[in-house]
């Protein structure tokens, strides 16, 4: 299973098929939990992020229903994945690891590449990391004000990755590769 936010928010099975999360509120919920990068998000914060002041009649009950539907979608992506969406006293938490979360994999790959010398492995690691990008982080949700810090961080890391790639190519005597 993969949760992808480097482009439109998507949930992908181990076989590479996309699980349909068509409803915007469910995608917002997935985005809010993913953007927290494994940290708990209080229910009231999730309610604010999903409905932005235009609350349903019973927001906590509707949030519970959305969380249940998200757990079902996670299970469609991988049997048992619903267990990754937990509730703690601090809020709801989506347990992520670098294998399941493209943004985490991207940031980790760029950080690992930074520690490498000017080698072909570093060029490949940075190139591979940059290929994870499918579009603007969080896609059509990127204009949500609460996502701004996560979007900005991902853009910063991407800029750092491009800069490191160009510098490494130049250090390796490949100015043409740096231009391309």
Automatic annotation (TrEMBL):
Pfam families: BTAD, Trans_reg_C. The lineage of its organism: Bacteria, Bacillati, Actinomycetota, Actinomycetes, Micrococcales. This is Bacterial transcriptional activator domain-containing protein. The keyword Lipid biosynthesis does not apply. Residues 1-96 bind DNA. GO terms for biological process: phosphorelay signal transduction system; regulation of DNA-templated transcription. Residues 1-96 form the OmpR/PhoB-type domain. Belongs to the AfsR/DnrI/RedD regulatory family. Keywords: DNA-binding, Transcription, Transcription regulation. SUPFAM superfamilies: C-terminal effector domain of the bipartite response regulators (SSF46894), TPR-like (SSF48452). Signal peptide: none annotated. PROSITE patterns: OMPR_PHOB. One of its GO terms (molecular function) is DNA binding. InterPro entries: AfsR-DnrI-RedD_regulator, BTAD, OmpR/PhoB-type_DNA-bd, Sig_transdc_resp-reg_C-effctor, TPR-like_helical_dom_sf, WH-like_DNA-bd_sf. It comes from Candidatus Agrococcus pullicola.
């Amino acid at each position: 299973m993969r949760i992808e936010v480097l482009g439109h928010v998507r949930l992908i099975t181990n076989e590479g098929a996309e699980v349909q999360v068509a409803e915007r509120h469910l995608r917002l919920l997935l985005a809010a939990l993913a953007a927290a990068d494994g940290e708990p998000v209080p229910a009231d914060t999730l309610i604010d992020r999903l409905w932005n002041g235009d609350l349903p009649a019973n927001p906590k009950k509707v949030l519970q229903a959305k969380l249940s539907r998200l757990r079902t979608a996670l299970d469609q992506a991988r049997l048992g994945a619903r267990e990754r969406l937990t509730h703690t006293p601090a809020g709801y938490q989506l347990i992520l690891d670098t294998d399941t979360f493209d943004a985490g994999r991207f940031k980790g790959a760029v950080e690992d590449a930074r520690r490498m010398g000017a080698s072909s492995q570093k060029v490949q690691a940075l190139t591979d990391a940059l290929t994870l990008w499918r579009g603007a982080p969080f896609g059509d949700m990127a204009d949500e004000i609460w996502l701004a810090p996560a979007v900005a961080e991902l853009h910063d890391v991407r800029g750092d990755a491009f800069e490191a790639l160009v510098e490494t190519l130049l250090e390796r005597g490949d100015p043409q590769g740096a231009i391309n």
